[in-house]
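Figure S4 source data
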Amino acid sequence: MQIGGFIKQSFIDYPGKIASVVFVAGCNLRCPFCHNPSLVEISSHDILLDERLIFEYLQHHSLLLDGVVITGGEPLLQKDLPVWIEKMKSIGLSVKLDTNGTCFSALQELLLNRKVDFVAMDVKHVLSFEKYRQATGILTKKLFENILSSIRLIMEAGIAYEFRTTVVKGLHSQEDLLLMAHDLKYARRWIWQPYQAVNVLCPEKEFSSFSDAELEAILHAAGGISNVQIRK
């Protein structure tokens, strides 16, 4: 595992659980609003963390933790991710996986074999190829097909999950959010995360944040979207 960051204890990254957070380096998308730009690309000059030391910490503190969150970057690009997850399970930790949904086959293998307990998938934009490409910087038709398949898979897998959208003024309109609400109308839980213009991949973009009041007004205009939660 190529690990670029580690939080020993978090109360907010795994709903209802105390968890450590492992940040995997490397991503196959280039979302301009990405708030982890240091994890997008891996170069020979990057300082990666020692996987062995992180596992030793988790093993030593496993009785004080409920689980571990594996995020990124895009964790499913890591070929040894299933082995790492098995190690987490062996010390009694629940596993939450954060993903962009582009690696459908790897996700399918984990879910069919019940390797993870919770999946959080970022849904970047309206589920049309051109809109989605605006939000991801680079996108192929194959990756987009994988994203659509991953959404269906997660909803049908019978595990805990949530979809998340970083809501960006200058990228998303009210109409876009209402179209996304239709795309995700059968989802159990959809999180709106207001854009934060701090340490983003493309700070030159003319993006800004919707206020809580603006987001609430959009929900009201839609007659209420029951599965949406605005993350403050």
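Figure S5 source data
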Amino acid sequence: MARLRELYKKKIVHELMKRLKYENIMEVPRLDKIVINIGVSAAKEDIKVLDEAVEELAAITGQKPIVTRAKKSISNFKLRKGMPIGCKVTLHGIMMYEFLDRLINVTAPRVRDFRGISPDGFDGQGNYNLGIQEHIIFPEINIDKVGKIKGMNVSIVTTAKNRDEAYELLSLFGMPFRKEG
């Protein structure tokens, strides 16, 4: 079993029930899925950049990404409907907990001048979005073979009803949020 999943079942559930004053264990928020997305605008000219992004995202997540395509044509961006413009992976279950564990404990501290993750990435429904500017912070990526540094978006979807519940859940998982003030 994944380390964070075990932590969730043994400690976090009981801690959240105390902090948020829940009566029923089914009310406690939990992780639903994690979606990792890489947008590759350079794929319009060179499809090899997209192939490289797919390969690297598969190495980071351990799961084969799907290629996302443009939904409509935009002439200002020289984009046609159906052109490949990125790739994404949706993680569930053990893979999701393993990725979150690596993100919190290995990857985040590798960021240059790391002072914590911004607590501003929550939406109103209890989900958290994290933008990563350099994908080379993941230890699975061989820096010598990287052609171009890419950014990525990590969306952590929870069953929390609001921002505060999601913040409590992720902070109990060990997410290193930056202290404001």
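The chain has a mean pLDDT of 87. The beta strands are 31-39, 66-69, 84-91, 128-132, 152-158.
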